[in-house]
């Protein structure tokens, strides 16, 4: 019962979960010392699991779109992102079997761009599903794309988590994207031309 109460409280509010834990521990008349220790261990494990959810929820509610997640959910599964030294993170959803593009080659990609709270701000599907073409690695797209697309193979699908300094920085091209926002793109490399 204790774990269920804490879980329900934690799902609603961190302060509520903390207060419930305090009340349970301070009520020594109902619990033996062993139960108190079990309570502390259970609560610590629960809070360690739930705390990132509180932080993400709080950041999203406060409009903080600059944090860079270390994990992502792909097909209902939580996966760890891989990182470049400059903070760009990625996960290969599907590894392609075609060639890698070289710097300066024109690539054709489909994409979906979203903020860390899940708000989609642009997508190939919003433009008729047509891939876009651009030369890679020459500064015609945001730095995160110039760095994250070349290692892909044609047919691959990659999620890029791009910190603000590798995206638009303080100069957002649209009010939909806050200044310095971390952007998440799912990119399909359709062709190298």
Shape: globular
How large is the count of helical segments?
Answer: 4
Q: Which stretches of 5+ consecutive residues score pLDDT under 50?
A: 1-14, 45-64
Structural class by secondary-structure content = alpha+beta
CATH architecture of the largest domain: Roll
- CATH fold field value of the largest domain: Chitinase A, domain 3
Q: Give the number of domains.
A: 2
**Multimeric state of these chains?**
single chain
Backbone CA Rg? 22 Å
Largest sheet: 7 strands, antiparallel
| Terminal CA distance | 61 Å
How many beta-strand segments?
9
β-strand amount: 25-35%
Share in helix = 25-40%
User: What string, H for helix and E for strand, traces the elements in order?
Assistant: HHHEEEEEEEHEE
Q: What integer is the average pLDDT?
A: 78
Using the coordinates above, name the CATH class of the largest domain.
Alpha Beta
Overview of this structure, please?
The protein is α+β, with helices and mostly antiparallel strands and 193 residues long. Strands 3, 4, 5, 6, 7, 8 and 9 form a 7-stranded antiparallel sheet that branches. It has 2 domains: 2-62, no CATH class; 71-192, Roll (Chitinase A, domain 3). It has 4 helices and 9 strands; from the N terminus they run αααβββββββαββ. The longest helix is centred in the N-terminal third of the chain and has 30 residues, at 33-62. It has helices spanning 2-12, 14-26, 33-62, 143-148, and strands spanning 71-74, 77-80, 82-83, 89-94, 106-115, 120-123, 132-135, 157-162, 183-192. 19% of the residues are buried. α1 (2-12) packs antiparallel against α2 (14-26), α1 packs parallel to α3 and α2 (14-26) runs antiparallel to α3. The model is unreliable at 1-14 and 45-64 (pLDDT under 50).
């Amino acid at each position: 019962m204790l774990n269920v109460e804490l879980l329900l409280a934690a799902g609603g509010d961190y302060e509520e979960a903390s207060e419930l834990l305090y009340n349970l521990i301070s009520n020594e008349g109902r619990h033996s010392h062993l139960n108190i220790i079990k309570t502390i261990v259970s609560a610590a494990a629960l809070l360690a699991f739930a705390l990132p959810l509180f932080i993400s929820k709080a950041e999203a509610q406060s409009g903080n779109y600059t944090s860079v997640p270390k994990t992502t959910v792909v097909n209902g599964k939580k996966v760890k992102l891989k990182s470049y030294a400059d903070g760009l993170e990625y996960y290969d959803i599907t590894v392609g079997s075609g060639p890698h593009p070289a710097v300066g080659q024109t690539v054709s990609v489909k994409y979906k761009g979203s903020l860390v709270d899940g708000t989609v701000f642009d997508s190939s599907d919003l433009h008729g599903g047509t891939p876009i073409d651009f030369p890679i690695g020459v500064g015609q797209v945001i730095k995160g794309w110039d760095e994250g697309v070349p290692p892909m193979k044609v047919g691959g699908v990659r999620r890029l988590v791009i910190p603000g300094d590798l995206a638009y920085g303080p100069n957002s091209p649209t009010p939909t994207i806050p200044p310095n926002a971390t952007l998440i793109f799912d990119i399909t490399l359709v062709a190298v031309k």
